[in-house]
Amino acid sequence: MSRHSAGAGPGRSPRDSQENGVAGPPPRRKRVVLADSRAPVTVLRTVVELEEQTSYGEELVRGFIRIQFRTAVRLALLAAVLLCGLPVLFYFVPAISDITVAGVRLPWLLLGVAPFPVLFGIGYWYNVLAERHERDFVDMVEK
Amino acid sequence: MGGTAVELNLWAVSGIALVAVMTFYVGFRSSRAASTTQDFLVARRTVRSRRNAAAVSGEYLSAASFLGVAGLILKDGVDALWYPIGFTAGYLALMLFVAAPLRRSGAYTLPDFVEARLGSSGLRKLATFFVIFIGVLYLLPQLQAAGLVLSRIMPVPQWVGPVIVIVVVVVNVFGGGMRAITVVQAFQYWLKLFAIAAPTFVLCAIFIGRGGAGTDTTALTADAPPTFAETTTVRVETPVRLQVKEPVWLWADGRVNGAPASGDVFWRPEVGEVTVDAGTTLRFNAGSAVPVVAGAPADNESWAKPSSGGAGDLFTTYSLIFATFLGTMGLPHVLVRFYTNPDGKAARRTTLHIMLLLALFYMFPLLLGALSRIYVPELLVTGRTDAAVTTLPVKVIPGIPGEILSAVTAAGAFAAFLSTSSGLVVSVSGVLSTDVLRGRVRDFRWAALIAGIVPLALALVLRPNDVSLSIGVTFALAASTFCPVLLLGIWWRKLTWVGAGAGMIVGGGLVIAAIALDVVSRYTGDWAPSFVKQPALITVPIAFFVVYIVSKATHRRQPGDTSRTLLRMHAPDPLGFIRDRDVARFGTAEERARLADGRHRR
C-alpha cells in the first residue's frame, strides 16, 4: 500500500492539485467535505469523563483494571498449582511412576499430554472472561 | 568438526535448498507491499490473529524445539518434558497479563513501551541495550546449530551454515521488514509441523508394524541400559565421560582413560566411569549395553521415571518452569509480533491460537525422542543427542525412503533456524533503527544489515554450546529483566522509571554473572552448582523485589500521565483509546490527524 492510497477518498486530491497546479492544467474539481463520514459519530459523556479523568471516570477505570487483574491472577494461580504440583507429587509419591495406562507410564502422560489441554483450556476460559468483562464495561460506558 | 570426511547427502541438501528458495520467494512476494516505516516495524498493525499465531509459533519453534527437545528426551527422559510444557505455558502467562494491554499501549518496540509508560529516555536506552543483548544471545545458538547441521550433511566447513541463514534472513528483512517476515514465519510454522509430523507418523507406523521394539532391544521401562540393535561404530569427537552399568566387550582405537587403547577392551561395571578422549573410535557388538554419558540416566528404568535425585533436581525443575513461564513474555522477538495485531482483543486471540499450535507441534518431538532411545542409542555415547531427529529415519528405514525422510527433518531444522533468526533480526533491527538511527525505511535496512552481520561474526568466533542449555539461560535473562517491568508497568500504578531501571540492572546483571560463572566453571572442571546453570528461581524474585522497593523509595518520580497510560492500555478496544505511537512518530500528516480524532465504534 503506498503512502498516498492510505488516504483514499476526499483527503487525497488537495495535495496532488497543489503540487501540480502551478504550471499545469487548471486545478481539478475539488470535493468539499464538511464532515468526514468515517469520523466518530458518538461522543459519549462517559467516554469524555474517562478521557478527562474526572474522579468518576478514574474510579470506573480502576475498578475495571482490578476485575481484569483478579481474573488473570486466579487463572495463573490455577495453572501454577496444577503444574507445580507435579514435581512435588512425583517426589513424595514415587509409586506413581509404576502405574501404567495403556502401556505408557503415568508420568509420561501427566507431563507429555495432559498439560497442553489444561493450559489451552485455561487460556480459553480467560479469553471468554476477559471479553465478557470488556463488553460489560463498554455497555456500562455507552448506557 | 572432526577429521572424518562427510559425504554429500544429496536429498538433504536439496531439501534445504528448497526451503531457502521458498523462504526467499515468499518473503520477496510480500515485501513488494512494504514501503513505509510502519510496514517495516509493525506490518501496519494489520496481521489477523490466525496468521499472526502461525507466525509467532513459526519463529518460536527454534532449533531448541525442533532438534533439542527430542534430544533431551532421548537423554534425560521424562524430566525433559518440562521444556515443552514451559515453552507453552509461557504463552499462558503472556496472554493473562501482557498481550492485550501491551498492544493497546500503542508501542512499536519494547523500549518504546518502556518510554510510553514511564516517560524516561534513559530507561529507553537501557531497554534498547537489553533487547539487543537478548537478541544476539538467542541468535548465536541458532547460527551455530545451522553450521553444525549443514556440516553433517555436506562436506563444507562450519561457517557456511550461519552465512546462508544470515544472507536469506537479511535479504528478506531488507526487502520488506515485518511485512515480509510475517508471511515467511507463518509459512515456516506449517513447514516445520509437516517436517516433524510426517517422519513421526511413518516411524511410529513402522514401530507398531514390527510389533514394538523387537527382542534385540531393551524395553523402554526395563531396569537395564539401552542396547545396540546392531553392530555399531561410534566416533567420539569431543571428550566424554561414560557410565558403565553393565559389562561391555568392545573394540576401541584411540585413548581411553588417558591410556592408548587399540583392540578389544572389556569395561566392568566396577570401574564406574570411563573417560574417552576425542578422536577415539569405539565399536560395539549387537546386543551389548550402551554406556551413557555421565549426568544422564544410565538405565531405562530411571530414564522413564521422574527424577528423584533430591532437592537439587527439584530446584532445577522449578527454576526451569519459572524461567520459561515468565521468560516468554520478556522475549523481544516474540513481543514484537504482538504489536502487529490490529487491537488488544486480536492480541489475546493470537495467543490462544499460539498455544494450540505449539501443543500440536510438541507431540511429535516427544514420540521421536522416545523412539530414538530404541533405535539410535549410540548418540548417548557421544552425547550428541541433538542429532536424534535427523539420524533416526535413516537408522529405522534403510535405503532411499529413510534418506528422504531424514532430508525432510533436516529441511525442517533449517526452516527453524531461518524463521527464528528472521524474527530476531527483525526485532533487533526495529530497535536499532528507531533508537540508534532515525527510523526511516533506509535506517531500518541498515539496521537489518548490522543486526545480521554482528551476530554472524560472533557465532563464527565463539565456541558452540549445547543448543538447548543456552536457550534456557536466555529465558532466564528475559524473565529477570523485562518481565518485572512489563508486569508491574501494566498492572501497578506506582512503578517509577528508577525502580524499573534498578530492577533491570540487578536482574540482568545477576543472570549475566551466572552465565560468566558457568562458562568459567565449564573450562575449569564443571564445579558450578545447579542454580548457576538455571538461575531464574533466584534472580526473578530479586528483580521484582528491587523494582518494588526502589519504586516505593522514589514515589515522587511517578510519571504524571500514569492514569491516562493505564486507561489506554486497559480500556476495551471499541472505546477507541488506542493511539499508535508509530503513527504519531512516523505517519503522514493525514494519518496523524486521523489518530487525533480517536475512533469510537459502536
TrEMBL record, chain A:
<keyword id="KW-0812">Transmembrane</keyword>
<feature type="region of interest" description="Disordered">
    <location>
        <begin position="1"/>
        <end position="28"/>
    </location>
</feature>
<keyword id="KW-0472">Membrane</keyword>
<feature type="transmembrane region" description="Helical">
    <location>
        <begin position="72"/>
        <end position="94"/>
    </location>
</feature>
<feature type="transmembrane region" description="Helical">
    <location>
        <begin position="106"/>
        <end position="126"/>
    </location>
</feature>
<protein>
    <submittedName>
        <fullName>Integral membrane protein</fullName>
    </submittedName>
</protein>
<keyword id="KW-1133">Transmembrane helix</keyword>
TrEMBL record, chain B:
<keyword id="KW-0769">Symport</keyword>
<feature type="transmembrane region" description="Helical">
    <location>
        <begin position="123"/>
        <end position="140"/>
    </location>
</feature>
<feature type="transmembrane region" description="Helical">
    <location>
        <begin position="189"/>
        <end position="208"/>
    </location>
</feature>
<feature type="transmembrane region" description="Helical">
    <location>
        <begin position="53"/>
        <end position="74"/>
    </location>
</feature>
<feature type="transmembrane region" description="Helical">
    <location>
        <begin position="468"/>
        <end position="488"/>
    </location>
</feature>
<feature type="transmembrane region" description="Helical">
    <location>
        <begin position="495"/>
        <end position="516"/>
    </location>
</feature>
<protein>
    <submittedName>
        <fullName>Cation acetate symporter</fullName>
    </submittedName>
</protein>
<feature type="transmembrane region" description="Helical">
    <location>
        <begin position="404"/>
        <end position="432"/>
    </location>
</feature>
<keyword id="KW-0406">Ion transport</keyword>
<feature type="transmembrane region" description="Helical">
    <location>
        <begin position="6"/>
        <end position="28"/>
    </location>
</feature>
<keyword id="KW-1003">Cell membrane</keyword>
<dbReference type="Pfam" id="PF00474">
    <property type="entry name" value="SSF"/>
</dbReference>
<keyword id="KW-0472">Membrane</keyword>
<feature type="transmembrane region" description="Helical">
    <location>
        <begin position="352"/>
        <end position="376"/>
    </location>
</feature>
<dbReference type="InterPro" id="IPR001734">
    <property type="entry name" value="Na/solute_symporter"/>
</dbReference>
<dbReference type="InterPro" id="IPR038377">
    <property type="entry name" value="Na/Glc_symporter_sf"/>
</dbReference>
<keyword id="KW-0812">Transmembrane</keyword>
<comment type="similarity">
    <text>Belongs to the sodium:solute symporter (SSF) (TC 2.A.21) family.</text>
</comment>
<feature type="transmembrane region" description="Helical">
    <location>
        <begin position="444"/>
        <end position="462"/>
    </location>
</feature>
<feature type="transmembrane region" description="Helical">
    <location>
        <begin position="160"/>
        <end position="177"/>
    </location>
</feature>
<keyword id="KW-1133">Transmembrane helix</keyword>
<dbReference type="InterPro" id="IPR050277">
    <property type="entry name" value="Sodium:Solute_Symporter"/>
</dbReference>
